[in-house]
Structure formats: C-alpha cells, structure tokens
Design goal:
Length: about 700
C-alpha cells in the first residue's frame, strides 16, 4: 500500500464503490475512462446488486470481498451511504478515499454532523480523504481519470478547483490552446485534504511546471499553510495563477453554501496572492491565457519587441504595452540598419523601429516570409526578451504555403530559446494551419493584443517579474516644445488669473531669504527651487514649520549643500490640511481639461482623480468630486466638519477659463490644502508648450507631482 499522496495520484490499485452496468452513470464511466487512460494497476468495482464484468473489470457485491490494502477507493455513492462504505473500506486497510457526493456540511446541519463523523473515522484510522462534495481526481502521471470529464488533455499544468464546471471549462479551453494537465484535483469541502496540501505536493512534482487554482475559500486556520504552499511554488520556480471567487458579498454567501469555505475579505486575498507572486485571473479563459506562456522557458526580462503587418496593430500594441507598464525599447542603431534593409521602402518607420510595421506593398500580405526574416535578427540581437507577432498573420490563404514556411521558421527561432515568442491573430489555430504550426510548437496564439499583453503581464507577475515602467514620451522643460515658468512668473500668471496665492520670496542668498521671512512672519516653510527637481520632498527640499532665523539658516544651508545651484523659496507655513491637486490644460480636440483629485504623495502613488472636459457648472464640479474615493472625507464623514469645496470650485473655474484662453499652458496646483474654512495653494507649476498639431499625442490630463 502506497503512502498518502502517492496513493492519491499514482495508486497501484483502485476500487470504485458504486460501480454500475449503466454506461450513463458515473460509476461506469470512471472505470471506462481510467481503462482508456491506460491505468496499469489493479482496478475493482463494488455494487451490491451487480456481480459482473465492466470493461474487463471484475465487480463484486461487497467491500468485504476485496483484498486488503487497496491503495485508493472512490465512493460513487449518495451521502447517506458514504459513512458505512468508508467504515468498511478502512477496515479493509484502504486508507485513501475520494468522496464526491454532496449533502454534507455545505448544505444542512445534519450534513455537517455526518461530515464530522466521517472526519473522525478518517482520523481514527489514519486515513486520508479527498472531498466530500468534489468532482474527483485525474492524473496523467497515474493514468487515471476519476472525474466526469473526458477527454483529459495531457500537459504539465496542475489544476486544483473547487468547482467542477470551472475545471470542465479549463479542459475545453486547454484543448483549444494546445495545453494540458499533469493532474486535476476537485478539492470540495476540504474536510481532510486541503488546497494547501495539494499545492504543496504539486510544488515538488517533477511532472508539473505550473499550477492553476480556482478558490472559493479555505477552511479555518488554513491561511498560513496556504501561504507556505505558495511560497514553495515560488521557490521551485513554478508560476501559480488563481481565480479567487466569492469577492462580492453575494458571491461569498454562495461560496459558503457551495463548499462551506471561509471567504475572507477580498483585499486580504489580493494582498496574500500578490505577496506570493500569484497572478490573479477573472475566469478560466484568462487563467489559461496566462498559463499559455508556460510551454516555453520563461523570459529573462520584459523588454518587448513588436512586429506587425499593419499600422493599427502597432498602435494598439503600444497602447497595451503602456497600459500594462511593459517596455518596448528602441532597437540599437546597428539593428535598425539591418532591419531597414529588410523592410519595404514605403513601410512606416517608428522611432527606434520598435514596433516594426511590415505594411504597404511588399509587406506581410504580399510576402508572409518577411515576418520570419525580420524576426530572426531581432531574436538574435539580445535586445528584447519577448517578441510579439501581431496583425493578420495566418489569414493570407492566397499565400498559404509561404505562411506555413514562415510559421516553421518562427518555430525554429523560438526553439533556440533566446526569446519568448507570442502571436496574435483574428483566427484561431483550429481555423488556420500556420497558426496551428505555431501553437503546436508551444508558441501561444491569442485573438487580441489586449488578451496577449494582459496574459504576459499576468505570467510575469506569477514569476515575480516586475516590468520597468516606461513613461509616455513628453517634451521636457527647456526643450523647444515646452518650457517651465519660473516660480515668480508662475505666481504672477496665476495671480492674474484670479487665484489667490500665499506670499513668497525667491533668492539664492540666505540672508535675503531671512529678511523676507521676517516680513512674511514666522513660522515659515522653505523649499528648494530647481527646474531639475520635480519631487522636492523626495529630495529633502521642503522644510516646513521653521520657527526662527536660526532654524531657517540651518535649513537653507542644508538645502543648498545637497542641491548646489538651486534657489530658495520662502513662504508662510501653512497648517496641515486635506491635500487636493488641481490641474488644467487645453486639449487640441476637446478643449479645456481639468483634473481634480487627492493630492500630495497620493497623486502618483494611488491616483484618485476625476476629469472634467470643457466648461462645467458648480453642480457638475460637485458631482465629479463625489465620485472620488476620498469624497466622504470632503463632505464630513464620521461627524467631521465638511471641507470648503466652494472656494475649491472657484479655483477650478478660474483654471478652466485661463487654459481655454491660453491653450499652450499646463498648470499643476499640488498640494492645495483644503480646510473647513477655506483653501490655500501650497505649490504650483506652470508649463508652456508650443500649440501645434504635433502636440495631439499628449496625455488627456496634465502631469501630477507631489511636493
């Protein structure tokens, strides 16, 4: 007799209690499916009213007629008969049981009591139990299929699910993607064997490369074991992708009735999964999309090269790259020269030739093999880790032989292992032979670039790979396209726009700054002024609440020492208030754009903003404020005084009017301190841009910064 997990996944002998002569019933299908899987051990059946042979398997009328020490028993019985059958099994030395039937703790108090007696029996006899209320287990390694689903696609993904339907959807979707599973476990109520137990075992299983989970919840006190199991997966280099359901209050109630699991707050689950590098999927389709990347060695980084046969596909790819924080670096000059010789003369050339767009005459539609010819030097360059092929490859039926040749060349490049290759096409591998060639070689194929990049980002998260954020290209201060106004000029401009600002003085002479501070009145706030320093507080350049000249001199000397060449700005110390940011600019298509939201550090770390386009009324401004997550803090949560949103509206309206009249200006007020009696603008930046058609690509909202 084998030990616990071996008896479950690779048993040498199995008995189906509840075997049936009716081919439509589960007790019959289990035997047939396991035989078809090529199970090489002993297989038995038990049915009190059927002494017969099913598919070459002897069925006896009683458990007492079985030999002792069978490894695994599957109890295909109603809940009312399970306890008696389990008792007979353990007395025959069968110490691993699968109980699929429902009607236990997930349903009624009587079922819970029955479940308790079943657990006590297992513990008394040192038996292990999977279920109850589960769909069973399948294993290609053990060559058995004790589930209602067939065929069971073979591969190297371990699947653990608390839902039979989700597992069935995964089976169907995996076949479409050329994926498969090493093992699939229906975990059920986790009366004994739990999700952490199975994940721990899969973490060490040499036949499993990645793990997919569908989780409704865990049993009480299983959280620490679950985290430990996920950490073992991470240590063994196996990505884990999880669907966590029961995130809504209604969903949590259903989960409780489904598998009697404890569904904790979703924010806690999100933190646990993220801390263990588990990628989260919304459904079985997304789970399989992410796992599609596991058929190839994981990329060494997340530098992305994009090759498409259409300009629209290149633009969509750039959009998705930006949305997921992925990097598409410019190719080196040498690689650009090599690619320039391969690309048709009339094809568009993007900056850095990444993405590479194989459009126009002589491009992908006329010559599908141009894709593989261009792919080869990019893959060999070492400049990217992942190459994405996008567009209409696989659809050119008039060039099918050439497409097939290109596909085979691409698979040869992928087989070298220097880069990971993924493809997007409107057709599926089932509909297109070239795409089928790619998929059969392990190259994942997606219907949309959105799904491709979302899956790549999820796969990277499951490996603990953090992409290097790539900022949108913007003109820097001092460039011909944009310039940052000095603080004095910005203050004058905003004052002329009708925005009240605190008194300020700017100089690089410490004594003159001290004289200005006396006129302003202590306490004062001292700030560094340098166009190269955007985040003043990060650079130690903000010193609030200076009470006298000695403190001011010391702070000024410290700032100038750490930021030589800078100037010093002194202004009244403003009492702490709720920090808001206001930003405004003029968009060439939509006119004035105003951004309002939580300011200070939050403006970038956890953006909470609303965007108003065009002119707006007081009620419209208020409506947008109330959409913010921080809105309860503005309007008097927990019996606090409401904050002064009326003067905030006045500033916002003034900004809107100003940028409408001066479309080249971008204004950031951050932070604006909001009190119950009024507002104070603590800091402002004004950038002036050239107003030309070339600026259409700018962001729809102004830049934000913290002080």
């Amino acid at each position: 007799m084998k030990p616990d997990m071996e008896a479950l996944f690779t048993p040498g002998s199995v008995v189906v209690v509840g075997a049936s002569r009716d081919p439509r019933k589960w007790g019959n299908r289990l035997i047939r499916e396991t035989r078809q899987m090529g199970f090489e051990g002993e297989l038995f059946g038990v049915n009190p009213s059927a002494d017969c042979i099913i598919d070459g398997v002897e069925v006896v009328t009683g458990i007492d007629q079985l030999r002792e020490g069978i490894d695994l028993a599957f109890l295909a019985l109603p809940s009312s008969k399970v306890l008696d059958a389990a008792t007979q099994c353990v007395h025959r030395g069968i110490q691993t049981l699968i109980v699929p039937s429902s009607g236990f703790g997930e349903s009624t108090s009587e079922g819970a009591a029955l479940e308790g007696r079943l657990l006590a029996l297992a513990q008394q006899h040192h038996a292990r139990l999977l279920g109850p209320n589960c769909f069973g287990l399948a294993s290609h390694v053990g060559k058995l299929n004790l589930t209602p689903f067939a065929p069971f696609p073979r591969g190297r993904i371990g699947l653990v699910s608390q839902s039979g339907n989700v597992a069935a959807e995964a089976f169907i979707g995996a076949r479409r993607r050329g994926l498969g599973f090493s093992h699939c476990v229906g975990i059920g109520n986790q009366l004994d064997l739990s999700i952490p137990d199975i994940v721990n075992w899969l973490a060490e299983d040499e036949n499993t490369d990645a793990i997919g989970l569908y989780i409704e919840g865990l049993q009480a006190s299983a959280g620490e074991a679950f985290v430990h199991a996920l950490q073992r997966c991470r240590a063994s280099g196996k990505p884990v992708v999880a669907i966590k359901s029961g995130t809504s209050s209604a969903g949590a109630r259903v989960a409780g009735s489904h598998t009697r699991s404890l569904s904790s707050d979703d924010a806690v689950w999100a933190e646990v999964l993220a801390s263990c590098d588990v990628s989260r999927a919304a459904d079985a389709e997304e789970l399989l999309d992410i796992l599609s990347f596991t058929r190839r060695p994981r990329p060494s980084g997340l530098r992305i090269g994009v090759l498409t046969d259409g300009g629209g596909d290149s633009i969509l790819s750039l959009d998705e790259l930006s949305r997921h924080g992925l990097a598409a670096p410019a190719f080196s000059p040498d690689l650009q020269v090599e690619l320039d010789r391969l690309v048709p003369d009339d094809a568009p050339r993007s900056p850095g030739m990444n993405p590479l767009t194989l459009d126009t005459a002589g491009g992908g539609e006329d010559d599908p093999q141009i894709l593989s010819r261009c792919l080869a030097p990019v893959a060999a360059s070492g400049e990217v880790d992942v190459i994405v092929i996008g567009g209409l490859f696989g659809t050119y039926t008039a060039r099918r032989d050439e497409e097939n040749s290109a596909a085979r060349a691409i698979t040869q490049i992928a087989a070298r292992g220097s880069v990971v290759i993924a493809a997007q096409s409107p057709l599926t591998p089932e509909e297109s032979e070239p795409l089928r060639i790619l998929q059969d070689s392990g190259i994942p194929v997606f219907r949309t670039v959105q799904r491709l990049f979302s899956s790549l980002r999820g796969y990277a998260a499951a490996h603990g790979m953090t992409p290097v954020a790539v900022s949108e290209p913007r003109a820097e201060p001092g460039s011909p396209a944009a310039s940052m106004l000095s603080p004095e000029a910005a203050w004058d401009l905003l004052t002329s726009a009708g925005i009240a600002l605190p008194q300020q003085y700017l100089d690089d002479d410490i004594e003159l700054v001290c004289d200005a501070a006396r006129r302003i009145g202590f306490p004062v706030c001292l700030k560094v002024s340098n166009p190269l320093i955007v985040h003043k507080s990060d650079a130690g350049g903000v010193r609030p609440h200076l009470m006298d000249q000695n403190q001011l001199r010391a702070a000024a000397a410290d700032i100038l020492s750490s930021s030589p060449g800078s100037r010093l700005l002194v202004m009244p110390h403003l009492p702490p208030g709720f920090e808001i940011m206001l930003g405004a600019r003029s968009d060439p298509l939509f006119g004035s754009v105003l951004v309002v939201g939580r300011g200070g550090v939050s403006a970038e770390i956890d953006p909470d903003i609303a965007v108003l386009v065009g002119t707006f009324t007081r009620s419209g401004f208020t409506e947008h404020l109330r959409r913010l997550r921080c809105a309860p803090l503005l309007y008097g949560a927990r019996n606090q005084k409401p904050l002064a949103t009326e003067p905030l509206f006045a500033i916002a309206a003034a900004l809107q009017q100003f940028v409408s009249a001066h479309p080249g200006h971008e204004i950031d007020l951050n932070p604006v301190f909001l009190y119950d009696y009024g507002v104070e603008v603590a800091d402002a930046r004004v950038m002036v841009r050239a107003t030309s058609h070339q600026q259409r690509g700018d962001d729809a909202a102004p830049s934000r910064h913290k002080e």
